[in-house]
Specification:
The structure is a single chain. The chain is mainly alpha-helical. The chain has two domains: 8-73, Orthogonal Bundle (Arc Repressor Mutant, subunit A); 76-123, no CATH class. The protein has helices at 8-21, 34-41, 45-58, 75-101, 106-123, and strands spanning 61-64, 68-71. The protein has a two-stranded antiparallel ribbon with strand order 1-2. A hairpin with a 3-residue loop joins strand 1 (61-64) and strand 2 (68-71). Helix 2 packs across helix 3. The radius of gyration is 19 Å and the shape is elongated.
C-alpha cells in the first residue's frame, strides 16, 4: 500500500476516497477515525489527521461533533466527477493528440477502443 514517492497523508486520503467510490463507505456512514487510520497504515495520528482534514476541506467528509467523521452526501458523485476529469486529462487528451498526429479521426479512435474492449471481454485480459 505504501508508495514511497507520495506523501502518506495523500495515500490515506486516497484510500478513504477509494472506499467511497467503490461503495464500501456509503454516504452518511461513519468514516474510520484518525486513530483507526493511523493504526491501520502504521503512521502518526497527525499524518492521518492531515489526510482526513484534506477530505473535509474537499467536502468529502464532515464532522459530527462528539461522534466522528461521516461521508458527506454527494461525496461519491463528487469523487467520480473528479476522477473522470483526471482520467480525461491523463489518458484521453494524450490519446487524442497522438491520434491527430497519425491521422486518426474520432470514429476511428472509437472503433479501436471498441475492438480492444471486445478483446478484453472475450479473452479476459488485454492483448
Amino acid at each position: 500500500m505504501i508508495d514511497e514517492g507520495r506523501a502518506l497523508f495523500l495515500q490515506i486520503a486516497e484510500s478513504v476516497e477509494d472506499a467511497i467510490v467503490d461503495g464500501s463507505l456509503a454516504e452518511d456512514s461513519q468514516a474510520p477515525s484518525t486513530n483507526e487510520l493511523a493504526a491501520f497504515h502504521r503512521v502518526n495520528p497527525a499524518t492521518a489527521a492531515k489526510g482526513v482534514n484534506m477530505l473535509v476541506d474537499k467536502g468529502v467528509l464532515y464532522k459530527r461533533r462528539g461522534i466522528g467523521m461521516f461521508v458527506a452526501p454527494g461525496a461519491r458523485r463528487l469523487l467520480l466527477d473528479e476522477r473522470r476529469t483526471a482520467f480525461a486529462d491523463r489518458y484521453v487528451e494524450p490519446l487524442l493528440a497522438e491520434a491527430r498526429k497519425i491521422g486518426l479521426g474520432p470514429d476511428e479512435v472509437r472503433t479501436l477502443i471498441s475492438e480492444r474492449a471486445a478483446q478484453t471481454t472475450t479473452e479476459g485480459s488485454p492483448r
